[in-house]
Amino acid sequence: MDTKIIKETFERDGYVLIPGFLDTDEVTEIIQNFERVIAHVTPNMPREKVFFEDETDPSTLKQLIDIDRYDPFFNDILNKGKFKDIAGFLLADDVIGKTLEYFNKPPRIGKPTPPHQDGYYFMLKPSVAVTMWMALEPADEENGCVRYIKGSHLTGMRPHGRTTTLGFSQQILDYGSADVDKEIPIRAKPGDLLIHHSLTIHTAGRNNSTTRSRKALGLIYFGVSAKEDVEAKAAYQRKLQEERIGGNALTG
Ligand SMILES: O=C(O)CCC(=O)C(=O)O
């Protein structure tokens, strides 16, 4: 895909899908490294960075946060190479890789992702940041693909409030049927990359498939021109810990 079209689409719609951003071998390498991390690294990661749909069943792993801090392979994926390059290109800024995540919706029990804007979690001024979501297996309406509201990055921050969804502690409070009607489900194949602006409204359905999971790689980049409200963020994290929701200050 032409880089000019990628940028125009991102700026107009608030998101862009880049088919085949990674090839089959590159996707296989990422999947194998996630398998290694899940087997050998997660046991040493803090509990609040490892979320299960059902705490008593390890096969229901749904999310890993900040993997880059615990594993050099994924630190390089975040901070070296083409993900970081395209983040800088789209934001027209130098960028800082903030986190690398793993998302899954296990078959039958994978819960919906509440509608939200990542910028609400990021607490940035201005909200110069992008989130990337790369499919590791086919994602569609049945297994809970990502859904966007086109152009919503241009209409400001909506009010957010608490959810009980692990890993996604905040959702848009006044999200109504008019919003649902505007949702665009994005089907993706392994290696297809979705990039959205930090103000773009997005959500994802539950996993209704009885056999297929919905695994993905997530990356977040902040532009250096964006200033973090460090105190507000630390207070928010403390509150989440106190309430034992296991929230996440970076993803939405
Ligand atoms: O994986 C999902 O369902 C949603 C991911 C998301 O909200 C994000 O990457 O910002």
Description:
It is globular, with a radius of gyration of 17 Å. It is α+β, with helices and mostly antiparallel strands and 252 residues long. The protein has a single domain, classed as Sandwich (Jelly Rolls). The mean pLDDT is 93. The chain is 29% helix and 25% strand. It binds 2-oxoglutaric acid. 2-oxoglutaric acid binds next to strand 7, strand 13 and strand 14.
Strand-helix topology:
Elements: H1 3-13, E1 15-18, H2 24-41, E2 50-52, E3 61-64, H3 72-79, H4 82-91, E4 95-103, E5 113-116, H5 118-122, E6 124-125, E7 129-135, E8 146-149, E9 160-162, E10 170-172, H6 177-182, E11 183-185, E12 193-197, E13 202-204, E14 216-223, E15 227-228, H7 230-243
Bound molecules: 2-oxoglutaric acid.
2-oxoglutaric acid is lined by residues 103, 113, 118, 131, 133, 146, 202, 204, 216, 218, 251-252.
Features:
single chain; 252 residues; alpha+beta; Jelly Rolls; seven-stranded antiparallel beta sheet; 7 helices; 15 strands; globular; binds 2-oxoglutaric acid
CATH class: Mainly Beta
> Which percent range fits the helix content?
25-40%
Q: Please outline the major beta sheet.
A: 7 strands, antiparallel
Quaternary state of this entry equals single chain
- Work out the number of β strands: 15
Radius of gyration: 17 Å
Total of DSSP H or I helical runs spanning 4+ residues: 7
CATH names the topology as Jelly Rolls
What is the SS-derived class?
Answer: alpha+beta
Please give the domain count. Answer: 1
Spatially, the strands of the biggest sheet line up as 1-12-7-14-4-3-2
- Give me the CATH architecture, please: Sandwich
- Please mark out the parts with pLDDT under 50 across 5 or more consecutive residues, or reply none: none
- From the spread of the alpha carbons, the general shape counts as globular
Mean pLDDT: 93
CATH superfamily: q2cbj1_9rhob like domain
